[in-house]
Amino acid sequence: MKEFDFADIQGFDWDKGNIDKNWTKHEVLFWECEEVFANRPLLIQADEKHSLDDEKRFYVLGRTNEGRFLFEVFTIRNFKIRVISARSMSKKEKDIYLKQYER
Fold it and tell me: pTM of this prediction?
């Protein structure tokens, strides 16, 4: 599978199947998911354990404009970010996120 350059991103991939599912499951709105990618600091890692042969997955730790700490799993489809899952960070994830940027 080709490595992806995040500089090539052209937006987000939302449709009827995924735009509201994170609200239903975790009370995260689709626009909060987008805000995370626009704010810094942002911690992105490949999710090798959950990646598929034909689709690489990533996870991101970041903050919304209101300062909400979110954990998101996403993939890249047709140069767009497609959020698979989003929820509030666990305490452990928040500690990792904050420690990463206290240096």
Answer: 0.89
Contact 58, 44 (CB under 8 A): yes
- 49 neighbors 75 (Cβ within 8 angstroms): no
Residue 37's beta-bridge partner residues?
none
At residue 70, what is the residue type?
L
If residue 44 lies in a helix (H) or strand (E), which one and from where to where? strand 43-46
Alpha helices, DSSP H only, in 1-103?
21-26, 30-38, 91-100
Quick one: 48 exposed, middle or buried, by C-beta within 10 A (0-12, 13-18, 19+)? exposed
Strands 69-77 and 43-46: unpaired
Residue range 10-61, pLDDT digits in tens: 999 999 989 999 999 999 999 999 999 999 889 999 998 888 778 899 999 9
